[in-house]
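Data deposition worksheet. Section B asks for the primary sequence of the deposited chain exactly as it was used as input, without tags or linkers unless they were present during the calculation. Section C holds the resulting structure in C-alpha cell form. Section D is free text for depositor observations; keep each observation to a single sentence. Incomplete worksheets are returned to the depositor.
Section A, Depositor: J.P.
Section B:
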Amino acid sequence: MASSQRPAKEELIARDMKRLHTLGYAQELFRAMGGFSNFAISFTIISILSGCVTLFYLVPTTTGYSAASIGWPLVTIFVVIVALGMAELASAFPTAGGLYYWASKLGGPGWGWFTGWFNLIGQFAITAGIDYGAAVTIDTLLHAWFPAIPAVPGFSDPATQWTTLLIFAVILALHASLNIFGVRLVALLNDVSVWWHIAGVTLIVVGVVGATLLALQFNPGNAGVCCATQVTGPAVHGLNSAGTLFAVNQTFNATGFPLWYAFLIGLLLAQYTYTGYDASAHMTEETIGAETRAPWGVVMSVVVSAVAGYALLMGLVAASPDLAAAGSFVNAVLYILQSRLSYVLGTALFAVIAVAQFFCGMSSITSNSRMIYAFSRDGAVPFHATWHRLDRGRTPRNAIILSASELHSLSGGYFYCHHRSLYRVCLAHPTSPDVKGFQAWAMAPGSVEQADWDYRCNMGCLYLSALYVAGSLS
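Section C:
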C-alpha cells in the first residue's frame, strides 16, 4: 500500500535536486512552489485581463469584431502546439532559464547563447510593455475618478506622459520589493491572481452580456469621467449578431494597409497576450516535482487562458453598442463597461482589470529575474557574479533589481524620444557614435512629413533604448 501512495514532499525535493545535479547545477534557489503555483505564474503573465485589454484597440481599428472572434482561436491553435513542445522540453530539462539551456543541449553553445540573449531582451521588452500598459490603465482609471489627473491617449500630451511614467516607476518599485521578499510571497500572490482573473472575467462577461439582455445602455461621460447618462427606448442597442461578430469588415480598417494585412495586424491582440508561459520552465528550480508539474503549468496556463480569454473578448464585442465609438474613446474596454454597466460599475470593473495587470507585471519580473540568474550562472552576462548572487532568503535580489531598473530605463528612453528630444540630441551631439548613424537616417530628405518622422522616431527610440540597456548591462 505504501508504494502506491504519492511521494512525500521531501522525497520529491530530493528527486528534483538529484535531477538538477545530473544537469550540471547545484540546488541554490529555494524550492517551495507547488504545481498550482507553477501554473499560476504562467497564467498570470499571460494575463487575459492585461493583453486583451491593452491591445483591444486593435479590434475597432483593424478588421472589427473578427479580430477577436476569428483571430483569437486561430492564434490559439499555434500557441498550443508551441506549448506542447515546450512542456516536453521542460520535463526533460527542468532548469531555470530553460530556453537557452535547451538550445545549448540540442543545438550547441552558439544556439544557446543566441537563444538566451533573444529571450533576455524579449523579456525586458514584454515586461516593460506589461507594466507600462498597467500604468496607462491606472492613469485612465484615476482620471475617471479624479478628472484633474491628465489622461490623453497617445503621446501628444506631456503632462499625461509624465504622469504615466511616474505611475510606471511606482509599479516597478512595488514589483521589485514584492519579489525580493521571496518566492513564498510571490507564489501566494500568483495563486490569488488566478482566482482574481477568473472572477474578473466572469464578472465582466456576465455583467455586460446580462446588462445587454436587460436592455441597459448608457452614454459614458467625456474620457470616462462621471457620469454616464442612461439611454432609453429604441436607441438601446442589443447583442450584436453572429454575422456581425464574425465578419471581416473593411469599415473599421484604419491601418492604411489592405484588409488582409489589417487582419494580420489584428492577430497581435492574441499573439501579444499569449506571452510568458515559459515562466513555468523558468521556475522549475523552485518547483517541487518540477519534471511533471512544470510541463502541466506550461500547457494548462495556455489552455485555461484560451477559454477564458475567448469568453472575455466575445462578451465585450457582443455587448458593444458602438465599436467605432469605443475605438475613439480614451479606452475601448472602459467604454463598453460604462456603456453597459454605468459609470460606477464600469469603473469598478476597470479597477479589477488594473489590479490583474499589476499581478501580471509582478510575475513577469519574477520570470525575468530567474532568466538573468540562470544566464549569469553560466557566465553569459556582463558582471555575471553580481547577478547570480542570492540573498539570505535564496532569492536573486540583484537580478530582480536589474530587471526593474532596466525596464524603467527602456520605457523612459522611449518616452523621452516620443517628445522629440531625440531630434535635439542628434543636433546637440552630432559626432556621438551612438546617434551619428541614426542622425543621417532620421534627417534624410523626405523626413519632414509627420507620418514619416513618427516612424523614424519610433525606430530611433528602439535603437537608442536598446543601446542604453546594453550599455548599462555591460
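Section D:
Residues 396-474 form one domain.
Strands lie at 218-219, 229-230.
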